[in-house]
Amino acid sequence: MDEKTMASLQATPEQLLYAKILEAGMYMGLLILLITFGLYAFGIMDPYIPLDKISEYWSMNVNDYLHHANIKAGWAWTGMLKYGDFVNFIGIAILAGVTILCYAAIIPTLLKNNDKVYAVLATLEVIILSVAASGILGVGGH
Questions:
Q1: Pick from 116, 98, 99: which is nearest to 107 by CA?
Q2: How far apart are the C-alpha atoms of 48 and 38, rounded to whole Å?
């Protein structure tokens, strides 16, 4: 390969920062998932749905499950973290939200490099993902 091709294959500073944060968030989310699954699987934390009754819920769609189990939709799980079958949502939320942090972190670098279009796109990405995750619009599948 010639030098021009090799130079174009080099990761930019914002790409490296994005990847670094994504990697750290992924490892943290997975570690929390493993820990919280252990708390649930080894019975250290009691589940909200008793294990002998969980098979009754397997055939239900999400709306029926939420209704019969008396669970509120959306972010209501944050109030149920005392149960082993809900504490694992922490790791899932970290894995789902790390992309927002990645985009937010690269905005200053994009602005410093005068990449205004990419900075605007990254800002819009942060806003859109944050609004979607917040449930403010109330149109999600929860």
A1: 116
A2: 16
In the chain, what are the domain boundaries? Answer: 14-134
The tally of CA atoms less than 13 A away on the side-chain side of residue 82 is 1
Single-letter amino acid code for the residue at 19 = A
**pLDDT tens-digit readout, 49-102:** 998 899 999 899 989 999 999 999 888 999 999 999 999 999 999 999 999 999
pTM equals 0.80
The DSSP line for 49-67 is S-TTTGGGTTTS-HHHHHH
With a cut of 50, say whether residue 142 has pLDDT above it: no
User: Rounded distance, CA 20 to CA 96, Å?
Assistant: 16
Backbone angles phi, psi at 126, to 5 degrees: -60, -45
Give pLDDT, residue 110: 95
State the Rg of the chain over Cα: 20
What are 77's two structure tokens?
Answer: 């799980």
The structure tokens listed for 35 are 């820990």
Written as six digits, the tokens of 97 are 């939200």
